[in-house]
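#data-curation
PF: Archiving a pair of folding outputs for the training set. Convention for this channel: one message per protein, sequence first, structure tokens after, nothing in between. First:
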Amino acid sequence: MESEPLIPALTAPGDSPALRFGDRGLTYAELAAAAGALAARLTDAGAARVAVWATPTLETAVGVVAALLAGVPAVPLNPRSGEGELGHIVGDSAPSLVLAGPGDELPAALAGLGRVDVRPVPEGPAPAAPREVSPAAPALVVYTSGTTGPPKGVVLPRGALAATLDALADAWQWTGDDVLVHGLPLFHVHGLILGVLGPLRRGGSMRHLGRFSTAGVARELASGATMLFGVPTMYHRVAEALPDEPELVKALAGARLLVSGSAALPVHDHERIASATGRRVIERYGMTETLMNTSVRADGAARAGTVGVPLPGVELRLVDEADQEVPAGPDGVGEIQVRGPNLFTEYLNRPDATAAAFADGGWFRTGDMAVREPDGYVRIVGRKATDLIKSGGYKIGAGEIENALLEHDGVREAAVTGEPDPDLGERVVAWIVPADPDHVPSLDELASHVATRLAPHKRPRTLRVLDALPRNDMGKILKRSLSAGDGD
């Protein structure tokens, strides 16, 4: 039995706004009635697990809330996934039903599932109180991106959702008076758990932009929204628009909290936004398997390039290849390992992968490399598999070199990888998109630029120029798509 429901405001709902997508919205009373009626249908159907066709709509939010009320694990499906990936996810998670909007056209991979159309309109008063469900019971099964093999189903227990959202409430001073605006997809942790369930757990409200636009951000922040969630590509567009959009500057200046996540926000975008608005974007760090681990606190120093300090209840350490702790300091690069109530339960149907993911003592191996400053702030330097470069006896994180490159006026986008080198072991390779294609900075110029900001051994030894960097839906650079044959 849960000590309290995941969404306390639905137990005695009032008429305050809960969710809004465009011009369609629901109060808490309306959400309780609509989601409660659907939850009763799921219970009557004996559903053991349901898929949710996760479009950025009111239907998706109501469907997920209904599954939580019914105590039925939900599997959010990315509508942009290919047939093969969807087929794998459906076969692996074996949902009995798929929840979708009445007008949604579902692909053939879902043809074998029973369909329930979600109608986000109240169907009479809210049904009886939600089921009593253990905090250890699964709430969601969220699939990884599958960059190193077929996507794995991450089983997230109800207690982990509550723990991470309450820890963020502490770090961000998040209350029921806050109004969150974002334009994130709803098939992953950032948009769904933080962006929808986060406001609902606090008893506040959420306004979804649909398609992200700086005009939409300005409109919502100017009309009562207090918090903005985004990913670096969104904040980059904000930074680019600020000189020409005074309404955006004013709206951002009045926001209580600007939060970026899902990938590192380049330092130069941090500085451009802070300079124009007086507001600093704060970053947090999490994963599908761990939910949120660290954040810059609302009452702390918003230090560009860091993801803050561990959240309440989260233990974090940096370790070397032998799982020995690495001391704090600029050269203490180690893998982040975490443990706490925010962790997933297992990879669905993958006991081998689950076991391999943990070190002795229940520490989860994140695969992310970082350094820890003496005051506890964590600075991520990249992924162990793709961003840790071993060159000339040094361990070099790609992230700090990328930030240095982005400080050069001639660089619009940057990625850094390592490639085999007979002398150094690996050499640092810079991939850039120039700010002006007719004036591409030279390797010597960029190497000198990096060496003066970081250290000489971190300078790039090879330069490759692209028209654009390959990215996924969340704006993360797909480094495995970069190869020696690409670029000029």
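PF: Second:
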Amino acid sequence: MSLPSNLNPDEASPPWLNKGDNSWQLTAATLVGLQSVPGLVILYGSIVKKKWAVNSAFMALYAFAAVLVCWVGWGYRMSFGDKFIHFLGMPNVSLDAQYLIEQAFLGYLPNATMIYFQFVFAAITLILVAGALLGRMNFLAWMLFVPLWLTFSYTITAYSIWCPEGWLSKKGIIDYSGGYVIHLSSGVAGFTAAYWVGPRTTKDKERFPPNNILLMLAGAGLLWMGWTGFNGGDPYTVSTDASLAVLNTHVCTATSLLTWLMLDIIFFGKPSVIGATQGMITGLVCITPAAGVVQGWAAILMGMMSGSIPWYTMMVLHKKIGLLKQVDDTMAVFHTHAVAGSLGGILTGLFAVPKLNRLFYLVDNWQHYIGFFYGLHTGHTTAGFKQLGIQLLGIVFVVLLNIFTTSVICLLIRLIIPLRLAEDELQTGDDAIHGEEAYALWGDGEKYESKLNSIYEEFPPPSKGGEVQMNQMA
């Protein structure tokens, strides 16, 4: 079969296009998308009290759709486009056909693939923020929050750290796949927004059982397996580094889950399913900034620390620090994302292997991209100290930026519409907000709940045999 004379096959498959890379990138992006829809939709809808199942799931679904429209409208160019100001790209539409089929700024891919890949990362960041606000935020306020936060917070972090022209990128920060851009920012933003929105009702804070733990595990499983694309797609090529990143991701996650599980058994006497899920999440988050630039033994050490340090902050420090007790962070995103993300960024600065960094960043420069321990080992001590300092600088930048921008956005929205649902809506839940309920067979499940509370119903200092009340969950 011959082609029509007016068609040029080189336009559909130009010389710079690598079909294998492009196929993997589209697959990886879809895996990340599945983490959100249906992964976090299912996880949120099942881990909350029954009366909040529909609203919680729908907050995630709405964010996914809203981010995509904003992303192609202006968000992608602000994050990865031509420089506008020191830490932000020029706002512009990303829907022109000619632009979409041109080569992306990294990799042998068209812009359309890169836009899609970066979109699913932006979307999951907003959905993670939602985790801190479940069970009381006004849905109409959430509808305003999503585009505003994407525009004035996420784009700044993404441009600064991931765009080649970004100021932290030029300094040589290592954030392989979003420990800073996604997890630290969502953890801090979620915690900050939770402060402004206010807590759940007293009854919900005291008793907030999951309505379906089996479905929660299904959502968690999608989240875990989807991380293959999350970290495996960031070299933008089908490379040995991508394979290493995937294996390190799963090794760290499994180690973290088992560490958290053992701590629960030692201090509470019960192997908690919710606790294991939290350990899984902290492992995934911790390895993300380091996935393709550390060795396997480092991934195991990172898993041990991500399964223990966030466990300690959640189960011990949470009851001792006034601000943590004051803010009602429903899904504990501060611990599972902000703490674990910061931990991952610091450990990346310690364990990053120079050779692996050169494979990922395609540079041959001993002044950047060298873990502190490798700097000591190779005699590049100053460079190792510098890398660790840059990693810490990135944490300070993301924390301060998100406290400021999230606070301003919440205060602006509050001038237009209440951030918090009305009291009658808080008492009723889904039916009052959406006119729909997740389950129509019986009431809120109180008669069907186990007499033994989960050990994750609030976070007092660990004590053997002590009953723990659930306040925040994974």
